[in-house]
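Q: Give me a protein?
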Amino acid sequence: MDVESDIYEVKLIGKTYHIDKNILIKIPLFKEALCIPNVKTITINRSSLLFDHVIAYVIDDTYPYPLKYYYELDNYEIIYDKDKLYDPHKYSKDKLELLITHIEEINELSKKIYVLETKIENISGNMYQHVSFDHTCYYENCKFSSNDNLFCNNHKNKFINTCCFNYNGIYCNNLTDHNYCLEHFDGQLCNNKNCGNFKIRNSQFCFIHYK
């Protein structure tokens, strides 16, 4: 049997195709014409612009046939699932929805970071609220000058720490904030209400509230 005998000539407006019968039989509109004996030419009064898409789709239904041209499949009476046709805008919508989701997650994370930063600022504020900017002794009601330290000479020895360890130019002597050497540093906050200073080692209080 001659192989060419299964090839049909399909004439559309603007172009003529030569297509195997096994492919054309998948197009319902052509089934009747394919049954006519000794006729190998099919003429269709239809533009050829979309016919390449139609042929590709009937050969492989996973072919990304453009959704916007679905009516051409209707013209050839081809059965198809409209939801599975290729829609470039669908992918754009999916990406947009994903982007919106990410933005919402970032906003939520930003809120949590803001809350955390606020808490840290409050803790920092409490840690330094004891600093006396007039440079007077901080011990109870003492009014003596502390010479840029927290306590005057009369009261600085009331605290357990008499260490002279020098850390970056700051002596561990309870005269400057919570700068303790490793021997005296506890690392936990003072138990005194609203105090943000660190505890002295082996004590429940900082150097301000320790007695």
